[in-house]
Design a protein that fits this description.
This protein is an alpha+beta fold. About 25% of the residues lie in helices and about 25% in strands. The relative contact order is 0.21. The chain binds iron/sulfur cluster (SF4) (2 copies).
């Protein structure tokens, strides 16, 4: 199979530098508003900051993949004397919590590194983080060419709608829409 070069984008998080200002959440939600920058609502952001000032705990987390099942057990971690739950670090949009879900539709949100917007030199949250807690890195890797599976995004959307509203309701809605056409 042919090899192709692929750009891998990474954002490193330096917890010691994050002060919980939440500018990253604001700009991300504004960029993804429709129309762009028409509103901002952290609940629509693809980065969320777990913050607990009483414990001096600030943890930015990027939205990753959708998962239909919640974990059976959740571990606790003590790092630098601060206690974190496993969920604090988790990037998944999952049934057991509200983060990384579009508030109106319940559809999962995922960081898109700002949609490859050519106007952006770096992802917006990195640009807006004045404390340098978010550091953008790009590397190039070689891998085997794969067929692009665009269907995957559609399936994830449908699966999460079924989780939220139930299979019957989704099927009834699709049937109603089909009748209208
Ligand atoms: S913008 Fe930077 S310092 Fe502010 S909450 Fe986000 S990661 Fe933390
Ligand atoms: S990289 Fe872009 S899409 Fe991802 S969390 Fe940051 S601002 Fe949002």
């Amino acid at each position: 199979m042919a090899k192709v070069k692929k750009k891998v984008k990474t954002i490193k998080i330096d917890l010691d530098k994050c002060n919980g200002c939440r500018a990253c959440e604001m700009v991300c939600s504004a960029f993804h508003a429709t129309p762009k920058y028409s509103s901002n609502n952290p609940a629509r952001s693809r980065i969320r900051v777990i913050h607990d000032p009483m414990r001096d705990l600030y943890l930015p987390v990027y939205a990753g993949e959708y998962t239909a099942a919640e974990c059976m057990g959740k571990d606790k971690y003590i790092i630098d004397g601060k206690e974190y739950s496993e969920c604090d670090f988790c990037r998944a949009s999952c049934p057991s919590r509200d983060v990384f879900k579009e508030p109106d539709s319940g559809l999962p949100l995922k960081c898109d590194m700002c949609e490859d917007d050519p106007a952006q030199e770096k992802p917006l949250c990195v640009q807006w983080c004045l404390n340098d807690a978010l550091v953008y890195e790009e590397t190039e890797v070689e891998e085997e060419e794969k067929e692009e599976v665009k269907q995957e995004d559609v399936e994830i959307g449908v699966e999460s709608m079924i989780d939220k509203y139930g299979l019957q309701k989704v099927m009834d809605t699709v049937a109603r829409m089909a009748k209208k056409e």
